Amino acid sequence: MKQPDQEVPEETGTSAFDTSTPLAREIQDLARRRKAIASQTLPLPARTRVFTISNQKGGVGKTTTVVNLSAALAKSGARVLVIDLDPQGNASTALSVEHREGTPSVYDVIVDDKELDEVIQKSPEFDGLFVVPATIDLAGAEIELVSMVAREQRLSRALGRFLDEYDIDYVLIDCPPSLGLLTINAFVAATEVLIPIQCEYYALEGLSQLLKNIQLIERHLNPKLRVSTILLTMYDTRTNLAHQVAEDVRQHFPNEVLDTIIPRSVRISEAPSYGQSVISYDANSSGSLSYLEAAAELARRGAPR
């Protein structure tokens, strides 16, 4: 059930708007951000940008980032393809596409050699947003892939054939929080890696191993792969810890971390239960505005050289 947008007062002059309280300042800031987003036109990439969104640590907002970045980019006018490579199918659920057992899915592509255009679905979220869903069949795919020829390149080859035929600006691949054959397929198919990092204790735990694995894949399977983007998520402005974690990550990755930070937000958490991104669930919330700003920053930065 779609939720009505929150009412946020229009921005007024400082003489007519009392900013003496934190709530008033927050409302004024939201209004300013809404106005800035509404007035911007995002550049489209010259060629398709293919992202794998990955973090071996669970619960960092990986699928949430796939869903909301894809919706934000599509809302801005881009043509976006989401490939759900996680057997849980959470991205498929959040984007309201069918993924019950037996539904044509990414499993059929990587195991049975179906073409992507045979399994793709259009998301009702926004025009230009398309999804290759995951079904429970995907849970056994890694075992089936073991004996296949070029098992690490099954998705890459299917995606390459699809992009030769169809005009897509962004591809976002959601993969499981583990380094199995499904995740390796995602890395081989992509040219960029986006890593969401939670602004909490142990945020950097396991990240060094993930980067080593990416380097191995770059060296042996996909020389075009780069870690281009790091997005800080679940930021709680009330804690010093969140601020310290953000500073630590920026020191380690000064060129990759986006300026935009995704706050911890009830609206972001609620949206998937309605089969929506937060962009359409509550367009005026701080979570929605943050993902729209992150998408804009991603688009303006462009692909790494």
| Rg, Cα atoms, Å | 19 Å
**DSSP helix count?**
12
Name the helix and strand elements from N-terminus to C-terminus, one letter apiece.
HEHEHHEEHHEHEHEHEHHH
pLDDT averaged over residues: 88
Oligomeric category = single chain
Structural class: alpha/beta
Helix percentage: 25-40%
Describe this entry's structure for a reader.
The protein is α/β, with parallel strands linked by helices and about 300 residues long. The protein has twelve helices and eight strands. The chain has helices at about 20-40, 60-75, 90-95, 105-110, 140-145, 155-165, 180-190, 205-220, 240-250, 265-270, 280, 285-300; strands spanning about 50-55, 80-85, 120, 130, 170-175, 190-200, 225-235, 255-265. Strands 3-4-2-5-1-6-7-8 form an eight-stranded mixed beta sheet, sandwiched between helices. Strand 7, helix 9 and strand 8 (about 255-265) form a beta-alpha-beta unit. Helix 6 runs parallel beside helix 7. The termini are far apart.
Task: Please outline what is shown here.
The chain is α/β, with parallel strands linked by helices.
Keywords:
12 helices, about 40% helix, 8-stranded mixed beta sheet, single chain, about 300 residues, alpha/beta
